[in-house]
Amino acid sequence: MTWSTLVCIGVLTCATAWLPLCLADECSEEGISCGSCVRRQSWWSNCRWCPVDGQCHAAGSQYSACNSSQQILTSDNCPSFTAQYDPHLAWLSWVLSLSAYQTREGGAAPQIQHAIDTFAEPGLVINISSFTAAAPPSKDAFSGYVAAVPRIKALVVVFRGTRDTKQLERELTTVLHEKIAFLGGGYVEKFFHDAYTSVWEKLSGELEKLRSKYPRYERLLFTGHSLGAALASLGSTEYVVASHATNHSTMPTVSLYTFGQPRVGDYGYAANHDQAVPDSWRITHRYDVVVHVPTCYSVIGVTPCSSEMYSPYHHGIEVFYPNDMAINDTYSLCSGFPYTEGDDCADSISVWDHCLGLFQGICIRDHSTYFNFHANASRLTCDLNCRQQRDAHLPFLN
């Protein structure tokens, strides 16, 4: 029995509410595997593995991102797949996401193909099918495309970001007005839900055609920027949850890489997503203001964001770049408390002090610029920064 446990036992005589906090230290260890975790004994019960945050916790730990039904108690139930962030796949996802802005002139696949060929290399992505749909009641247009990437034996689903200033204004003024229940659990912002369902109805049919054409492609990548990131989050979650309910045996490995993603839903949705899509990476860039909206409800002095009252809440896993995202710039995989809404990454920066003051331009730039390359739909040239990123990542795609 450790010294910390002895101290905690003394505390228990005064306040049994400290029990979850005391037990947390008994099971927590950096880098421990699921199998090792469930074989470990805390002072009164076996430890349990949380697949949502990928950590080992004691029974009742307040630090766990899992509820009791999500926890793994035996090694037989440990997942065989361990997610790892791939910066090269992240770069490709950014190329795919910014190329989606070529739907500005009507959603034609040739423009998207030309953008990818320019930013990456000709032939990297093939069989592009693009669609634009309108969502009631505003009749806003939302777009996306599906395609195949033979080099990594993957199919991709890409959603376009915000179309124009008027759409952005409607998004900001309606996003907190109403929430809607989502498949698998939790509530999401109705604006995102309506946008997603309007275009997914068309994209899903084309995706199944690609799956029939490329049956040996075992990976399915969802990606998008800004509004497109929110839609990609919903798409990846629904795809996995719906597949589990029908024919799980044929489901590909689903990955999500997003950029500048707003909060999509509440804590229930975040937990739903994290359990369904463990290979999920929410990439954030320094002063990017969009990753902080919709603003969440915080408990001053306790948590940066509350998990109660349907408060907007991010899912994982945040990958934070506190720099220009140039070649060899570092990043952090964020695991602060509370999980996915800790103050150790994007929330560590006083973003509102910058974005509501003299540095608004920096906040806009950091939202629009990832991998040191700006999401400018009108520019179809690969400048020096673009070429440097391409040379650093393209050879390592596999």
Describe it for me?
With 398 residues, the chain is an alpha/beta fold. Helix content is 34%, strand content 17%. It contains twelve helices and 14 strands. The chain has an eight-stranded mixed β-sheet with strand order 3-4-5-8-9-10-11-12, with helices on both faces. Strand 1 and strand 2 form a beta hairpin. Helix 1 packs antiparallel against helix 2 and helix 7 packs across helix 8. The longest helix has 24 residues. The radius of gyration is 21 Å and the shape is globular. The N and C termini lie far apart (47 Å).
Q: Can you give keywords for this protein?
A:
single chain; 398 residues; alpha/beta; 34% helix; 17% strand
Unreliable segments of 5+ consecutive residues: 1-24
Number of strands: 14
Spatial strand sequence of the major β-sheet: 3-4-5-8-9-10-11-12
Q: Averaged pLDDT, please?
A: 84
Task: Calculate Rg over CA atoms.
Answer: 21 Å
